[in-house]
Design brief:
40% of the residues lie in helices and 21% in strands. It has helices spanning 15-22, 50-53, 63-69, 80-94, 117-120, 123-138, 150-159, 172-175, 190-198, 204-208, 212-219, 221-231, 262-284, 316-330, 362-382; strands at residues 7-12, 32-35, 45-48, 74-76, 101-103, 108-112, 142-147, 165-167, 249-260, 286-297, 302-313, 336-348.
């Protein structure tokens, strides 16, 4: 008998809109959305409640388009600091059930509750207890997917919304999972889905039965990963971001107030995330060898990529440069809504590193590390706005 893990994926329903509704109980039952400034050309829908969803209002579309679909739509301004506060509160509730919690953006988290089953019951029972606790204490609802790996747990949380628990066990793979559209699979964005469709692959089952050599020719190493995901062979661990001692990874992500378009936007977006990651690495006196980035498009479809670095990094500049390089190698010109950066295979910052022959950047790397520490001290003493990096050029991120 297979001794499977029990993995949960918890997804807050209409997170921004739900948090705003806590301050506006008078809007209960009305179509409500959170969006950018309607006076700006790029004002978009960031989140919507269930009532707005019934009118076809979609995340990422222009405010004027949403208003045409739903003339009585109430559009509220966004308050990102408030959303961050509630995200922390929700993850604190998750941590009561397991120490293995991996945030995936501001409104989603994976939990490995394998070791918690003796205390709290089955995966479904734990999921239901978490949903009830979040609703009772914070007034928010979540959808939870329960499965034996992260990919299928995520698929489960998307399967039924809002305020629901969906279990995908091994017996459900052929019966349910393989019949779902391939675009529903985690890491299959629009571009990948279009390519798979051209290959005659429309469902997750089609992908699971595909020829691996063909997928490798078309997608490279990612093709083998896609095949494994579709077959239910994802064994990636739930990483505990933010740990310090004996940390497995340190990372951060940010969902932006508007879509990011073009090189300047992407650089500024990664800059916003890299600053936080670099700060946490410096505070923990750590560097990392493996860089991972998470990208979500305007429809919140996700793509995750990673690469092994020749040397461990922690500086703001190194994080940005390597993240942008990885981004450009794997993303088209589609608008971006969320970016995340994390480092794993961590090592103490003072671990000796073998210099490469003819290397010219050793001293500049030390200078960048020193600069990062100096900026951190200034921010700690005088506040975050006291000093910023030059390429932080976008004010409304």
């Amino acid at each position: 008998m297979i001794n499977d893990r029990t993995i949960l994926h918890c997804d807050l329903n209409g997170f921004y809109a739900s948090v705003e509704m806590l301050s506006h109980p008078e809007l209960a039952g009305l179509p409500v959305a959170v969006g950018g400034d309607p006076s700006k050309r790029k004002g978009i829908i960031l989140a919507k409640n269930e009532e707005a969803k019934k009118f076809g209002v979609a995340t990422g579309e222009a405010l004027w388009v949403a208003k045409r679909k739903c003339p009585k739509l109430v559009v509220l301004p966004s308050h990102h600091k408030l959303y961050e506060e509630y995200s922390i509160k929700v993850n604190e509730i998750y941590s009561r059930f397991t120490s293995q919690v991996e945030p995936f953006g501001i409104d989603e988290s994976w939990l490995d509750v394998s070791a918690s089953r003796k205390l709290f019951g089955t995966g479904k029972e734990i999921a239901d207890k978490i949903r009830e606790t979040v609703k009772r204490e914070l007034g928010l609802t979540i959808s939870v997917g329960v499965s034996f790996n992260k990919v299928f747990a995520k698929l489960g949380s998307d399967y039924k919304k809002p305020d629901a628990t969906t279990v995908f066990g091994r017996a459900d793979i052929e019966k349910i999972v393989h019949k779902l559209p391939v675009k529903d699979l985690l890491y299959v964005g629009k571009k990948t889905a279009d390519t798979l469709h051209k290959l005659g692959i429309y469902t997750i089952g089609d992908l699971a039965s595909s020829n691996e050599a063909m997928l490798l020719r078309r997608f490279g190493k990612f093709g083998a990963e896609l095949l494994a995901y579709a077959k239910g062979e994802d064994n990636s661990p739930v990483a505990c971001y933010g740990e310090t001692e004996e940390a497995k990874s340190i990372g951060n992500s940010h969902t932006f107030a508007r879509d990011l378009l073009g090189d300047e936007d992407i650089a500024a977006g990664f800059g916003k995330v890299a600053e936080n990651v670099s700060k946490r690495l410096i505070e923990a006196n750590l560097k990392g060898y493996v860089l991972s980035i998470v990208i979500k498009d305007a429809n919140l479809s996700s793509l995750v990529r990673q690469k092994k670095l020749n040397k461990p990094i922690s500086s703001y500049k190194d994080l940005i440069n390597n993240s942008i390089e990885l981004f450009k190698a794997n993303w088209d010109n589609s608008p971006v809504r969320m970016l995340g950066i994390s480092l794993s295979q961590l090592t103490p910052a003072d671990t000796p590193v073998q210099a490469e022959l003819f290397e010219t950047k050793l001293h500049s790397t030390k200078a960048e590390d020193a600069l990062g520490k100096a900026i951190l001290k200034i921010k700690d003493k005088y506040g975050n706005s006291a000093i910023n990096f030059a390429n932080r050029s976008i004010k409304d991120l």
